[in-house]
Amino acid sequence: MLDESRSPGRGRFITLEGGEGVGKSTNLGFVCEFLARRGVEVVRTREPGGTPRAEAIRRLLLDPAEEEPLSDDAELLLIFAARAQHLERLVRPALARGAWVVCDRFTDATFAYQGGGRGIDNDAIATLETLVQRGLQPDLTLLLDMPVEAAQRRVSERGNERDRFEQERADFFTAVRNVYLRRASSQPERFAIIDAAQSLEDVQQAIEACLQDWWGGMT
Ligand SMILES: Nc1ncnc2c1ncn2[C@@H]1O[C@H](COP(=O)(O)OP(=O)(O)O)[C@@H](O)[C@H]1O
Ligand SMILES: Cc1cn([C@H]2C[C@H](O)[C@@H](COP(=O)(O)OP(=O)(O)O)O2)c(=O)[nH]c1=O
């Protein structure tokens, strides 16, 4: 299989992961600013979404409409449809021109939510991953981790209407968290675990230390 991650001159692909309310959106800008200060072109994006068509799929996925519940398989396939579009139209072209892509969630979220949360077989997810990514993997994944109850309190305080995923119960999010932690400990070279329960200042200090370390090894 062609491993695109090794092309010379290619940019780097950084993902932020974690359950709801751990601070991904809050810290995405911080990561982008760190990189921009070092003079690289930064592309900030998210999944599901990132292009107009992929954002349309995102709306289908998050819509809590109860008249027609979304089947688990349809959910999985929509996520990978959005991902295929996002990779083709935005991520691959950006990496190819040397930009650094910073993405709010990627396929680790699929293993965590659809695998851990919904109970879909890992092999099915891995098959779609191979089909859609063709060897492309994040170079660095920051996993923001904290206890589920405390993160849920942050979501409540954030106060937006809850989307289809945010309406899940605590045991769903506990399963999500456990899969993330298992994946991080089985791929320590790619993952950095950040204690997201700390104050924002301390979280950002931890992220900065990790990025500095990683940047040093990269340049
Ligand atoms: N370290 C922190 N301490 C306290 N509150 C935080 C911290 N990080 C983020 N928040 C707040 O928690 C809420 C959820 O953060 P957000 O970035 O939206 O999480 P996510 O994107 O992971 O769901 C927001 O209201 C945000 O302002
Ligand atoms: C990328 C991805 C997201 N999701 C879900 C998790 C989130 O609840 C939802 C939207 O992501 P996001 O906007 O990052 O959620 P939040 O900011 O509330 O943490 O999509 C999956 O279930 N599988 C996936 O592969």
From TrEMBL:
EC number: 2.7.4.9
Keywords, alphabetical: ATP-binding, Kinase, Nucleotide biosynthesis, Nucleotide-binding, Transferase
Superkingdom field: Bacteria
Keyword ATP-binding annotated: yes
GO cellular component: cytosol
Residues annotated to bind ATP: 18-25
EC primary class: transferase
One Gene Ontology MF term: dTMP kinase activity
Domain Thymidylate kinase-like: 16-207
GO biological process, one term: dUDP biosynthetic process
Family under the similarity heading: Belongs to the thymidylate kinase family.
Biological function: Phosphorylation of dTMP to form dTDP in both de novo and salvage pathways of dTTP synthesis.
Record-given protein name: Thymidylate kinase
